[in-house]
Recover the amino acids of this structure.
């Protein structure tokens, strides 16, 4: 593998993001430290909502905006994968 | 009657809004408005970008007391904000965050504690005062202003409330997932509660868990003002909430099956509002009971040559309905779809002509077109774009678009192509575009 994922969860998450949001990118080319929103992958709040449903269904982790860490959690694929690892119930 | 009070039937200690840290009584609200009104700069118009629904309302009310018009941009793209601010000379923007908009004078709102500014007497606003201007996207790339008088805003709120059976001063609270800078959000999540003396939740919950928490923070009859997208998310996620009083959905058509699921899930009636920024809320229906829209009291549909228009005492001129509709003998109507140029993505309406214009403004873009692919059973169908821009990358064009259009309209995907499938008259038939996109997706060569 030539991708830069640190764990299989990161690789799975990259696939989930691309599949859920129908991005025209190869999941393996996503930089796990790159910003997901704004200038990075360019996601918006509707993507966040769609992604939160996919994460909840796949990993049993419900995201909340009131979580003080929410900005950090959504800052990159790596941060998101770490939060899922900590909170997953599936 | 030449004016109407700033807020409806509240006693001074009644809760007007619920913020993250607790209740805001009416007395506090009037004090906050009075403080802010005294400190606003002397300008005719203001872009109110405050993110708390309560702070937005304080800014909106303070601006009205100073005779200032609140500008409601159709997008927060920096270029759109600058264009709107530039057209309304000497405007400024109200913000509570550390993100001033480059090129526009920003006034940071600082909250004062206490109620020292409590004005003792309820302020009244003339009915013919322009309270807000809602901008829509015209087909030429220029934002189109739609002026809203205080009389129109209060009349729509009263007509909506009476249709939904709301009683003035009843124990009820509004929780909304829609932005308050959007026309439906302003009408249903700001004007509706303050005219009827209800509690307004200041948040804007996004995720199902947020919506559940916000609903749990308020008491009495709970009214959820939302969109099909958020309803779908809540039903899919299976969030558990106590039975709601009422759900009000707008911004995109709600399917009857989702309405049925939502009624079961929330144990509440789901009502839909039909409206558009040019006229405001126009009609209502209970989605599970049929597809017919019932105009709000005081609203009449009239045929003007080929088009239908909305007429109401508070509209200075009849307003053309942007959808294809058929109207029955009782004046109720069925909506068949948007006029060709108008599309709706996740509740944001835009003219394709406007988007194309903005695409063509980008340096290096020789030709390009936005279009809506065939809709599938997804949460949201995104726009696509085909662009001819030799030497440019997809990222460069997306970057330039991001500064010009609302992110919800960013094409997904944006295809770089050698040329567009224009026909002999230079037109781009939709069928040809869809075929073109399908071939491209399969990696087939373009027929040029």
């Amino acid at each position: 593998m030539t991708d830069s994922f640190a764990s299989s969860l990161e690789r799975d998450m990259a696939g989930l993001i691309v599949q859920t949001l129908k991005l025209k990118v190869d999941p393996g080319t996503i930089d796990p430290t790159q910003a997901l929103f704004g200038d990075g992958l360019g996601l918006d709040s509707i993507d966040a909502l769609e992604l939160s449903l996919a994460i909840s269904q796949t990993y049993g982790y419900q995201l909340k905006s009131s979580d003080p860490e929410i900005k950090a959690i959504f800052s990159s694929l790596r941060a998101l994968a770490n939060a899922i690892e900590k909170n997953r119930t599936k | 009657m030449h004016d109407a009070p700033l807020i409806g039937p509240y006693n001074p200690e009644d809760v007007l809004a619920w913020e993250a840290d607790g209740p805001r009584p009416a007395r506090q609200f009037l004090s906050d408005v009075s403080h802010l009104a005294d400190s606003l700069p002397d300008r005719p118009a203001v872009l109110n970008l405050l993110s708390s629904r309560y702070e937005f309302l304080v800014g909106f009310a303070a601006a009205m007391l100073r005779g200032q018009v609140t500008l409601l941009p159709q997008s927060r793209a920096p270029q759109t904000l600058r264009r709107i601010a530039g057209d309304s000379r000497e405007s400024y923007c109200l913000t509570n965050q550390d993100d001033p908009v480059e090129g526009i004078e920003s006034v940071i709102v600082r909250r004062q504690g206490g109620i020292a500014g409590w004005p003792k007497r309820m302020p009244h606003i003339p009915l013919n005062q322009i309270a807000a201007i809602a901008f829509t996207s015209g087909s030429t790339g220029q934002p189109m202003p739609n002026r809203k008088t205080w009389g129109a805003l209060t009349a729509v709120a009263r007509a909506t409330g009476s249709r939904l059976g709301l009683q003035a001063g009843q124990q009820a609270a509004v929780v909304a997932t829609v932005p308050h800078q959007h026309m439906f959000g302003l009408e249903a999540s700001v004007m509706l509660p303050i005219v009827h003396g209800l509690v307004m939740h200041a948040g804007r919950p996004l995720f199902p868990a947020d919506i559940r928490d916000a609903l749990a923070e308020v008491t009495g009859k709970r009214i959820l003002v939302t969109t099909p997208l958020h309803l779908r998310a809540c039903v899919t996620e299976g969030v558990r909430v106590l039975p709601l009083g009422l759900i009000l959905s707008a911004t995109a058509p709600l399917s009857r099956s989702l309405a049925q699921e939502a009624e079961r899930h929330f144990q509440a009636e789901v009502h839909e509002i039909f409206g558009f920024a040019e006229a405001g809320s126009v009609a209502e229906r209970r989605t599970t009971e049929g597809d017919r829209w019932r105009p709000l009291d005081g609203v009449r549909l009239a045929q003007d040559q080929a088009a239908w228009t909305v007429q109401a005492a508070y509209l200075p001129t009849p307003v053309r309905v942007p959808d294809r509709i058929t109207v029955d003998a009782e004046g109720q109507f069925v909506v068949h779809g948007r006029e060709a140029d108008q599309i709706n993505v996740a509740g944001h309406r835009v003219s394709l002509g406007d988007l194309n214009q903005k695409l063509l403004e980008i340096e290096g873009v020789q030709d390009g077109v936005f279009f809506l692919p065939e809709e599938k059973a997804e949460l949201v169908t995104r726009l696509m774009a085909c662009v001819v821009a030799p030497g440019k990358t997809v990222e460069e064009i997306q970057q330039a678009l991001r500064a010009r259009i609302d992110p919800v309209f960013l094409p997904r995907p944006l295809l770089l192509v050698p040329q567009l499938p224009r026909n002999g008259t230079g037109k781009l038939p939709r069928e040809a575009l869809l075929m073109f996109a399908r071939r491209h997706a399969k990696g087939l060569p373009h027929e040029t």
Q: What stands out?
A: The helical segments of chain A are 8-21, 45-59, 70-73, 77-87. The interface with chain B takes residues 21-24, 39, 42, 44-46, 48-50, 52-53, 56-57, 62-66 of chain A (CB under 8 Å). Residues 32 and 77 of chain A are 5 Å apart (CA to CA). Chain A has a mean pLDDT of 86.
